[in-house]
Amino acid sequence: MNGKKGSSIRIDIGLPSSAVPRETARKSGSGEGDEAITIPLRKWMMEVWQFAREDTNRVTFSLKVGLACLLVSLLILLRAPYQVFGANIIWSILTVAIMFEYTVGATFNRGFNRALGSLLAGVFAVVVIQVAMSSGHVAEPYVIGLSIFLVGSITSFMKLWPSLVPYEYGFRVILFTYCLIIVSGYRMGNPIRTAMDRLYSIAIGAIVAVLVNVLIFPIWAGEQLHRELVGHFDSVADSLEECVKKYLSDDGSDHPEFSKTVMDDFQDEPAFRKCRSTLNSSAKLDSLANSAKWEPPHGRFMQMFYPWAEYVKVGAVLRHCAYEVMALHGCLHSEIQAPYNLRYTFRTEILDATNQAAELLRSLAKDLSNMKHSLHTSLLKRVHASTERLQRSIDLHSYLLTLSHDVCDCSTKPPAKLSHVSSLNGTDADGKKAEAETYHETMKKQQRRLHSWPSREVDDFEEDMSGESIPRMRALESTAALSLATFTSLLIEFVARLDHLVEAADELAKLAKFKQEIAC
Amino acid sequence: MNGKKGSSIRIDIGLPSSAVPRETARKSGSGEGDEAITIPLRKWMMEVWQFAREDTNRVTFSLKVGLACLLVSLLILLRAPYQVFGANIIWSILTVAIMFEYTVGATFNRGFNRALGSLLAGVFAVVVIQVAMSSGHVAEPYVIGLSIFLVGSITSFMKLWPSLVPYEYGFRVILFTYCLIIVSGYRMGNPIRTAMDRLYSIAIGAIVAVLVNVLIFPIWAGEQLHRELVGHFDSVADSLEECVKKYLSDDGSDHPEFSKTVMDDFQDEPAFRKCRSTLNSSAKLDSLANSAKWEPPHGRFMQMFYPWAEYVKVGAVLRHCAYEVMALHGCLHSEIQAPYNLRYTFRTEILDATNQAAELLRSLAKDLSNMKHSLHTSLLKRVHASTERLQRSIDLHSYLLTLSHDVCDCSTKPPAKLSHVSSLNGTDADGKKAEAETYHETMKKQQRRLHSWPSREVDDFEEDMSGESIPRMRALESTAALSLATFTSLLIEFVARLDHLVEAADELAKLAKFKQEIAC
Q: How does this chain sit within the bilayer (chains A, B) (predicted)?
C-alpha cells in the first residue's frame, strides 16, 4: 500500500510543477530531498482534505468504525467485563470489523446475514455433533469430516445460484461458523457451550456495530438513494445540453480520431462522463434500494413501507432517456457529419427544444429533491411545443437534406421560412440558392474528412470503384446531410421518452406521498 | 433461506401445471400433500441439474471448497497435527472459508490482500505493544485504545479512496487482525508469540486454499475473460440481427406501449437482453482482467505478461458498437415510426448491410475464440460495399423521405432505381407516384397512432393548435419518414465503428501473439 501511494504521488509531481526541480537543484547538497518531499506531501494532504470535504460522511464513517472497535476492545481492555465474558469476547471484534458497513441499511442487512448464518450453522453443528457422538468413537471423526465436506460444497454451490447471490456473505458465515464450532467442539468438548459462547460474543459485536451505526450521525441508504437519483436527473440534463451545444458549435475542423477519444475517455466532456456513469448505475441503485428496505422510517422518509423499489423503476426509465443521450453523443462523434451551416440552420429550434427538455428534467429533479409533487403540464406543453417547432422546421427545410441531387431541379420550391438562414448568408431573395452553394462548398472542404471514412482499406475501395467515385461522393454527401435528421430524430425521441419519465416520477410521488403542489 | 426457496418453488407451481390441483384434489384425504410436494421437488431438482450442467465449473468449485475445508479440518481432527499446531490452527479454517474464490486469480488476489494485511497488522501491532509496554502500566491501556481507534478510522477512510477500493478486503483484514493481536496480546501476554502463531496458521490455511484451487481442476480467470469477450461479440451480432429483423417485419399495428415494454424488460427480445448485459459488463471484464493478471501462464495462455488489459480495451470498443445497437433498438421502439412500405423499400440493402456486419462480428469472435489472427480485409470490404449500396439507395430515394410537401412538385424527378419498389406496387412506369399514394394511405392509417404522440396532454395541444393541425400532421409525417433515415444512419455509424473494433482486435492479436493466418 505504501509503495502504491508513493508511486502515485511521484506521478503527481511530474505533471504540474515543472519549476520545482530547478529550485531544488540550486540547493544541491544540503537537505536535497526535503523540499521535493514537502511539496508532494502538502499536495497529497490537500487532496485528502478535498476528498473528505467533498462528502463529510466519509469522515463520519471512519470515526464511527474507530469508535465501534474501541468500544468492543474495552470489553477486553477493562478488567471487569473481561472477567465476565472471558477470551471468547474476541469474536465480537471480528464481528464489528466485518459487519460495519457504510450505511445503516447495509449494516442491518449484513448483520441479518451474519446472525441467520451463525444461527443456522450453530443449530446444524449441534445436531451433527449429537449424531456423531452417538455413532461411536471410531465413526465420529468420519461423520464430522463428511459433514464439513458437505456443508462446504453445498453452501458454495448455493451462493452461485442467481437469486441467492445477494446472500453470498451469509453462506460464507455459515461455512466458517460451522467449521469453527464443530471442530473446536470436537477437540475442546462441550460443543453446545462453545456454540453458545461464540453466538453471544458475536451478538455483542453486532449490537455494538448497530448501535454506533444508527445512533451516531447515521448514514442512511435511503437518503443516499434519494440524492443519487436526483443527481442522475441533473447529470442527464447537463450532458444533453453539453452534447447539443458541442454539436452546434463544432465546425468539424478539429475532430480528434474517434478511437483516440474512446481511449482518452472524453476528457473534455465532463457531463457526458457523468451521464455514462448514470448508465452504469443500475447496480448501485439496486444495492442502495436493497439496503434502504432494511432501514426503519427516518428523517424525511417517515412513511412505513416507503416505496424504495419505485426509485429503481424511475432510475430505469431515466436510463432509457440516457441511452438516447448516448446516441446523440454518438452522432456528435460520428465520422459522417452534417456540414456546419446546415446544423446552424436549425440551431434555434434545436437549442430551444434542448433547453426546454433540460429544464423539465431539472424541474423533476428539484421536485424529487424537495419531495414535492407538482404537475409539470405547462413545462411538458412547452417542451412538446418546441419539439413541434423543430419538427415543422425540419419538415419545411427538408429539401436541404436531399439537396445534392442535381437530377431534381428543385428551385421551384419556395424558401418557406428561412429568416435566420438568409441572414446568415447575407442575401435576401435567393436565400436557398446561396445556402445550397455554401453547402456544396462546405462539402468540398470536408471532402478529405468524409473520405477518411472508411478509415481503413480506403485504397482498396478506390481501386474497386474508381468508375463510381462520383455517385459515391454524392451518397456520402446525402448521408452527411441526413445525419442532421438523425440528430434531431434522436432529440425528438428523447423528448418522447420524457413523457414516460414524468409518468414514473408521478407514480413515485403518489406512492411516497410527496406534498401536493399546485402548478404555476 | 429455506423459507425463500420454498416460496420460489410455490410460485413455480402456479405457472405451468394448472392440471395438477385437480388430480391432487381427487386423492383428497390420504397423502394429500405428497403429490403436490413431489412434483415441485422434481421440478426443482431438474432446475438445479440444469444449472449445474450449464457450467460444470460450478460443481467443480463447490466440491473444491468442500475438499479444502476438509483438508484444513483434518489438521485438528487428526491427533498428530493437532498436538503440533494447537488450538490456533482454527484460524486456518477461517482463512480457507474467506479466501477461497471462484477463479485462481481471484484467490491469489485475495490471498495477497490477506497476507499483506495480516503482515502489516502484525508488524504494527508488535511495534505498538512495545511502545505501550515501555510507557508504563497506567498509560498502557490508553495507548492501546487510542491505537485501535486510529487504525479503525484510518483503514476505513483509506478504503473509501477510489484507487484503493479494490483492496477493501485488505483493509478489513488489517483492522481485525490488528485488533485481535493487540487485544489478545494484552490479556494473554507475549504478543509476538500470539502474532506469530496466528500468522502461520493463516499461512497454512492460505497454502491449502491455493493448492486446492490451482492443482485440482483449476478455474482460470483468464479463460473466463477470453470466453466472456467472445460471447459479447456474438451477442452484439445476434441483437443487431434481431433488432433489424424486427424493424423490417414490424408493420406497426401491434406495438405495445413503450413503458410497458420497459417494465416487461423486452421479454420477446432475448438477444437484446443479452446485448444489454454486454453494456453492463465493464465491471465484470475489469474484475476478471484484474484477477487474470495474478495468474501464472497456463493452458492456451502460455505467454508471460499476457495482455489481459487489451481484452478490456476491446471490450470498451465493442461496448461503443453496442451503444449503436441500443440506439437502433430505440428506433425500433420509437413512437414515431416510418411507414411499413417505406421500410420495405430499403429492405434488401438494410438486410444486406446487417448480415455482412453480423458476419464480420462473428468472424472476429471465431478468430478470437481460436486465438488466430487473420486479416478481415475481404469481409470489411464487403461490409463497406453493402453500406455504400445502402447509402446510395437512400440517396437516390431520398425524395421519399420528404415526400409530403405538396408545395414542391417533385414529379419531375425520375425514379432512378426503383426496381423492387415498383415490383412491390405492381406498376412499372409511374412507380414513384404509386409509392407516394401508398405512403399517404399508410400515414392516414397510422394517423391514430401518430397522434398518440405526445401521449399525454394531447387534448391541451389540440385546443392550442386547432388552427395549425394540418401543418402539424405534415410535420409528424415528415418526421416519421425521416425516422427511417435515422435508422439507416445509426446502422451506418455502427459499421463505421466496426473499423475501430477490427483495429482493436488486431492490436490484441498482435500483443497476444495469436497464430497468423492468411486471409482467404
A: Multi-pass membrane protein
B96 and B111 inside one domain: yes
Query: Residue B475's Cα: distance from chain center in Å?
Result: 39
Cα–Cα distances in angstroms (integers) from residue B59 to residues A121, A150, A450, B213, B393, in the given order:
22, 12, 54, 13, 54
- pLDDT per position as a tens digit, B54-78: 888 999 999 999 999 999 888 878 8
Q: In the structure, what pLDDT confidence band is assigned to residue A220 with cuts at 50, 70 and 90?
A: very high
B349-362 mean pLDDT: 92
B219 contacts in chain A (CB < 8 Å): none
Q: Which residue of B has its CA nearest to A181?
A: B90
Least trusted range by pLDDT, from A99-113, A319-333, B144-158: A319-333
Q: Distance (Å) from the C-alpha of residue A65 to the closest C-alpha of chain B?
A: 6
**d(Cα A480, Cα A395) in Å, to the nearest integer?**
17
- CATH number, position A486: 1.20.58
The pLDDT mean for chain B works out to 75
Chain A hits for B119, Cβ within 8 Å: none
| pLDDT at A152 exceeding the cut of 90 | yes
- Residue B125 touches partner A, C-beta closer than 8 Å: no
| Nearest of A92, A34, A44 to residue A68 by alpha carbon | A92
Contact between chains at B93 and A183 (C-beta distance less than 8 A): yes
Contact B288, B228 (CB under 8 A): yes
What pLDDT does residue A221 have?
92
Partner-chain residue, chosen from A72, A170, A316, that has the shortest CB–CB distance to B262: A316
Is A166 in the same domain as A230? no
Same domain, A229 and A357: yes
| B264-274 tens-digit pLDDT | 566 677 778 78
Low-confidence winner among A190-194, A399-403, B176-180, B494-498 (lowest mean pLDDT):
A399-403
Residue B193 lies inside a defined structural domain of this protein: yes
Query: Domain count of chain B?
Result: 2
Residue B348, domain extent: 221-253+263-403+475-516
ipTM: 0.72
Between CA B279 and CA B226 the distance in angstroms is 17
Residues of B within 8 A of A167 (CB-CB) are 1
Cα–Cα distance measured from residue B473 to residue A128, given in angstroms and rounded to the nearest whole number: 77
At residue B368, does pLDDT exceed 80?
yes
Cα–Cα distance between A143 and B512 in angstroms, integer? 50
Give per-residue burial for A342-364: e unless 16+ CB within 10 Å, then b. bbbbbbbbbbbbbbbbbebbbbb
Under an 8 A CB cutoff, do B336 and A156 touch?
Answer: no
Say if the Cβ atoms of B183 and A90 lie within 8 Å. Answer: yes
Residues B427-480: pLDDT tens digits? Answer: 333 444 444 444 444 443 333 333 333 333 333 444 344 444 455 555 556 667
Rama region for A257: left / alpha / beta (φ>0; ψ in -120 to 50; rest)? beta
DSSP 3-state assignment of B261?
Answer: helix
Residue B14 inside a domain? The answer is no
Q: Is residue A470 part of a domain?
A: no
Residue A113 sits in the same domain as residue A205: yes
Average pLDDT over residues B383-403: 79
Nearest CB partner across the interface for A180, out of B51, B93, B413: B93
> Which chain A residues are within 8 Å of B316, Cβ to Cβ?
262
Cβ of B392 under 8 Å from any chain A Cβ?
yes
**Does one domain contain both B141 and B186?**
yes
Mean pLDDT of A205-210: 91
Q: How far is A429 from chain B (nearest CA, A)?
A: 18
Determine the pLDDT at residue B62: 93
Shared domain for B92 and B124, answered yes or no, is yes
- Answer whether B401 sits within 8 Å of A402, measured CB to CB: yes
Question: Is B20 within a domain?
Answer: no
Interchain CB distance below 8 Å, A65 and B326: no
- If asked whether residues B397 and B502 sit together in one domain, one would say yes
- Residues in A closer than 8 angstroms to B75, CB to CB, are none
Residues A202 and A299 in one domain: no
Q: Does A150 touch chain B (CB under 8 A)?
A: yes
The kind and range of the H/E element at A47 are: helix A32-54
